[in-house]
Design goal:
alpha/beta; Rossmann fold; 2 domains; two-stranded antiparallel ribbon; 8 strands; about 45% helix; elongated; binds magnesium ion
């Protein structure tokens, strides 16, 4: 038996439209009525996010002054995970078919592990009919009332709990799109495959030395056959 621990946003869900929509709204709410801005295209914006450019810096590049950048970043953090925006997210192309194929394999135990809060995960699982892939004892998420520190601190804790609770398997794999996924896996000697379908580019992922870097989940599972 092998176990596959899947990060949710990045390997499964595409959050780029949501983040871009929130970016547009925050710019609109922050700028002065006559202020000329350099509004980034979706691709320009997402390339910056994938290169780990901060919200403040993105505000600056978009033409906001320093004070405005602070407000812009604050507002962005307030809005980015509101449920009405979370509904914008879509499963990554091809992911449902891949999950269906994985679910048929009797030698594989599927787990989802996310920095989403419970209500945020539930909403997406229900909206896109993904509940069938992850029974409730195979879902690891952040409690709704938990005060998050940072992904890089919180995710290894979640991993620790999962490894304690889940039944023994011969081998465990993790698939994720961010540094927190790579660190969590490496801390526990779990093989980690990083995917480029999420919020980091190859240069950023390489810094954390995952075992593999592939384009998406569909490619990742070819490695763990
Ligand atoms: Mg992710």
């Amino acid at each position: 038996m092998q176990r596959l621990i899947l990060d949710f946003d990045g390997p499964i869900m595409d959050i780029s439209d949501r983040y871009y929509r929130v970016y547009q709204i925050c710019l609109e709410k922050t700028k002065l009525p006559e202020q000329k801005l350099n509004i980034l295209s979706k691709k320009e914006f997402w390339d910056l996010k994938r290169d780990r450019i901060s919200e403040q810096e993105i505000g600056k590049i978009s033409g906001l002054n320093n004070d405005q950048c602070q407000n812009f970043a604050k507002l962005r953090n307030q809005l980015a995970h509101q449920l009405n925006f979370l509904e914008i997210d879509q499963p990554i192309f091809g992911v449902i078919a891949t999950l269906e194929a994985l679910k048929k394999r009797s030698d594989l135990d599927l787990v989802v592990m996310t920095m989403r809060k419970e209500k945020e995960l539930k909403l997406a699982l229900k909206q896109h009919n993904l509940e069938r892939f992850f029974p409730s004892d195979r879902r690891y998420f952040i409690a709704d009332d938990y005060v998050k520190k940072s992904d890089i601190e919180d995710k290894p804790l979640l991993m620790k709990r999962a490894l304690k609770e889940l039944p023994f398997v011969e081998k465990t794999w993790m698939i994720g799109d961010k540094e927190a996924d790579i660190v969590s896996a490496k801390n526990h000697n779990i093989a980690i495959i990083a995917v480029l379908s999420g919020i980091r580019n190859r240069q950023q992922l390489e810094k954390y030395q995952p075992d593999f870097i592939v384009n998406n989940l569909t490619e990742a599972i070819k490695i763990i056959r």
